[in-house]
Amino acid sequence: MNYVWDTVIKARRLGINENQLYFIIAKEYSPYMEMSFQAINELLVNEDPDKEVEVEINPYYRYHEIFKNMFSLEYDEDKELKEEIFNWCIHLLAKVDVNHGLNLREFLRIFVEEEIEAGRFGEDMTEYWQEFSLEQKEFVAHKIIDEYHLGHQIHSLKEAITYVFPDSYIYTNHLEKSEILIYAGKKQREKYEKQMEFLKKMFLPLEYSCRVYWSKHFGIIGVNETMMVGKIALY
Predict the structure, then answer these.
(1) Does the reported pTM lie above 0.85?
(2) CA-based nearest residue to 139, from 107, 120, 163
(3) pLDDT at 41
(4) CA 229 to CA 174: how far, in whole Å?
């Protein structure tokens, strides 16, 4: 990781609160790099969310004009104050840095995630939402945006389930009734149940019913893999 924005994004993906990061000037650094460590995993993050973790940075790599006079060797007073101001400035610059590459779709994704977190879709949906990883949240939020813009609920449902449950198979039955059959390809656990419930409530059209099969597939005549004794679920 060479830039502060990369560090902040990687910290978010690891579930590290970026407010825990306390930026300080590196004691030793390369003039060709902004960050003085290679991986965010090198930081020893305490379970206490209020515990600050020092992150060393070379502020002169991109922000020389801002910080060139702040830590002059000729002036060594108010050291603690300058360190606090430096940390605030880097946090501000990091936010600008992270948001600099955002387009309209990314702003919409962030808005959707914030609405879910705030309970706008229901308290149960907020609870289920916590079971998704950061990457899964981003993908599902994009599918929600697609649903609003395109209205293809079944398509969005299939793509979201396939992403969250990579070994899943999804079948649509239109013969007698509108029905979705989902083989999740995972052992039934509370975490997966909540993820599936979220996706069903978010994307499943009202006129459709839905059945979920977890580790056992329902039998399909002619498909040997689904007709194994002891591994068949009844339809």
Answers:
(1) no
(2) 163
(3) 52
(4) 28
**Mind listing the pLDDT tens digit for each residue in 169-186?**
888 877 777 888 888 888
CA pair distance 198, 3, nearest whole angstrom: 35
First to last CA, the chain: 50
Of 205 and 36, the structure prediction assigns the larger pLDDT to: 205
Closest CA to 113 of 19, 12, 6: 12
- Find where tokens 């960050």 sit: 35
CA atoms within 13 A on the CB side of 153: 12
Quote the crossing angle between the two packed helices 4-13 and 134-150, to the nearest 10°: 90
Cα angle: 223, vertex 221, 210; to 5 degrees: 90
The tokens describing 128, both together, are: 């289920």
- Of 89-103, 106-120, 211-225, which has the strongest mean pLDDT? 106-120
Do 209 and 201 meet the contact criterion of CB atoms below 8 Å apart?
no
